[in-house]
Amino acid sequence: MDPFKYEGYPVRQRQKIMRETRLIDLLIDCLAYPFLTQLVTYDELTQKNPITRICQLVYRILKHCAKDYTVNKNYIA
Q1: What is the mean pLDDT of residues 41-53?
Q2: Alpha-helical segments (H) within 1-77
Q3: Where are the domains of the chain?
């Protein structure tokens, strides 16, 4: 299955575990790290850059964590 196109039903227990184990915090840190450490600049970002693909996948996981679960939506915000 293509992780960029897969849409599934959210499992509330898994979403809760991701918040309680602070995996959501780690995912947000993964999004910010390349830019805070100046590993890449905004000019270097293209669709072929591996950091772009990683950020897309992390964003997709965060989206699934918050899907139909208000507690995680507020936590991520």
Answers
A1: 84
A2: 12-20, 23-36, 50-66, 70-76
A3: 12-76
Q: Are 45 and 34 in contact (CB under 8 A)?
A: no
pLDDT category of residue 1 using cuts at 50, 70 and 90: confident
Going by C-alpha positions, the residue among 67, 74, 70, 77 that lies closest to residue 6 is 67
Contacts of residue 8, defined as CB under 8 A and 6 or more positions apart, other chains included, come to 64
Can you say how many angstroms the Cα of residue 64 is from the centroid of all Cα atoms in its chain? 9
Q: What Cα–Cα distance (Å) separates residue 44 from each residue in 9, 33, 50, 65, 76?
A: 35, 15, 11, 29, 27
Q: Write down the pTM of the prediction.
A: 0.79
Question: What percent of the chain has a predicted confidence (pLDDT) above 90?
Answer: 30
